[in-house]
Amino acid sequence: MTDEFDPHALDQKEFLEQVHSFEFWFQAVEGYLTDRPYGHREDTPEVELDEDRRENLITTLCNYCVGETAALDGASGMVDFAPNRHAKIFLATQAVDEARHLEVFLQRIRGLGVSEPEIEIERRANPGLVRFKRRLHDFVAARDWEAAIFAQNVVLETMENTVFRAHAATADPITAEILDGVIKDERRHLGFGENDIGRLLLERPEARARLGELRRELDPLVLGAFEGAQADLGTARAERAELGREYLTAVERLGLT
């Protein structure tokens, strides 16, 4: 599968049969897993970071781990009450993706000299992102499909896709290579979420009001975490505002206000 693959270009039947399959997942990830233990090639150079940049990168990666843990818990939990076999299979592949993302981010934190990443994650986690994680867990525990898939595969994946792409553009070589593979996965997860919610809104237009309410609840948590991550990376305030608008525009594709 090429980097130019666009799941939105597939018709509905083809999307369901291809994108929700293990075969599609394997073809999607094989090219950037074979030669990348822990998300990057072994010969990718490690550059020396000054102390401030190292500390900020560790904080950023700790928050990435919070998001990936939320998605891992969410995807694995939703398999049990997914509405059909296509969704079950897709979420099984997503759970594997999220587990791998968590693993490579933890390994990158260790590579930056942190011996106990879990302790640092708890210490450095953005409060808004932690609250978002708890709300996602609430939706999963309640077996609330539309809320859980919207929070996870639309809101969270849109934020991560936006943040990761911005970070990759300025990151050190190892972190940039890790993010490159993660972004490819996030694009697939986001395509699934948008497709599922889009079909839901066609079948049940009355769900639009509820999803709009959920978005109004979750957006401040996401944007607060987003702002914190960009500040840690040293992104200029004007650029942070532009990236925030990019996130909002992406979510609004579903027509939710």
Strand content range: under 5%
How far from one another are the termini? 34 Å
User: Tell me, what is the CATH class?
Assistant: Mainly Alpha
The CATH architecture comes to: Orthogonal Bundle
Provide a descriptive summary of the structure in words.
The protein has one domain: Ribonucleotide Reductase, subunit A (Orthogonal Bundle), CATH 1.10.620. Helices cover 74% and strands 0% of the residues. It is built from 10 helices and no strands. Helix 3 runs parallel beside helix 6. It is globular. It starts with 11 loop residues before the first helix and ends in a 6-residue tail after the last helix.
Characteristics of this structure?
257 residues; mainly alpha; Ribonucleotide Reductase, subunit A; 10 helices
